[in-house]
Amino acid sequence: MDTTPAQTEILTTIFIGIFLMLLLALAFVLFFYFSQRKFQVQQILAQEREIKHREQLLLASIKTQEEERQRLARELHDEVGSKLNVINLGLHQLKKQGAAPEAQQSFKDLFGLVRKTTETTRRIAHDLLPPTLEKFGLPMALEELCDQYRQSSPVMLEYEFSESGSQLDALVALNFFRVAQELLSNAYKYSQATAIKITLHLKPNALELTYQDNGIGFDPNARGQQKGMGLKNIESRMRTIRADYRLDSAPGRGTAFTAQKTWS
Asked: Is 159 helix (H, G, I), strand (E, B) or coil?
């Protein structure tokens, strides 16, 4: 059936209207799509800024901790340590001047107390700021740390170090040392382990630390399980230096920890 010019004009108008509506719908869809993309990009950027801000806060917090450790170590060594030496010298002078026989035991007790206090002060200052780490590097500092734990506990502690050559950043070395220190401290306090093994491997472009014990373990994913300050501190230090790490533990199966820092 032939259409009249009027009908043709009406059909054309309808098709144009439909086409315009489709264009409008397409424009709306594109506007919504790009608006969502823009919103998502803004969210991602905001999250990246938040992550960067948190990392800066973590770095500042750890830096403050280390500065406070250094301050306390210096005060213990310079102030408390020197005063204990003065007390010790004063007691020797008094003893030389002559003392009643009944006072000899008191002098002996005081000398023992001063000696023990001096040793404790030195140990605390050493734990706060181990001079071996700064003078001889991370491998020797970990060896010394393990020796200290061997002397104070019957736990069988094995330490291995291998090196295939690379210069180690001081901040990375410090944080790896603190992590090993925290792991050993937690193990001796809570794990009931009888055997511990620590391995440090310095590669040309990476540093790897592994820890393994045969203690009672725990379930890090258990509902209601709250991480102690020690584990939070370890995670914070690893995130601060952008190191990869993994903690594996289960009740009755001990605890394993691996950390690796790579660089170009």
From this structure: strand
Contacts of 87 (CB under 8 A, 6+ apart): 114
| Residue 257: Cβ-neighbour burial (10 angstroms; 0-12, 13-18, 19+) | buried
Tokens of 148: 């200290």
Estimate the crossing angle of helix 170-186 against helix 229-240, to 10 degrees: 160
Average pLDDT over residues 81-90: 76
What does the pLDDT average to over 41-48? 80
| pLDDT (tens digit per residue) in 122-144 | 777 777 778 888 889 999 999 99
- For range 206-215, the mean pLDDT: 96
Whole-model pTM? 0.69
Selection from 50, 125, 36, 48 nearest residue 80 by Cα: 125
Q: Take residue 149 and report the two structure tokens written for it.
A: 């734990």
Residue burial 171-205, b: 16+ Cβ < 10 Å; e: rest? ebbbbbbbbbbbbbebbbeebebeebebbbebeee
Q: Contact, 165 vs 202, CB < 8 A? A: yes
Residue 263: pLDDT over 80: yes
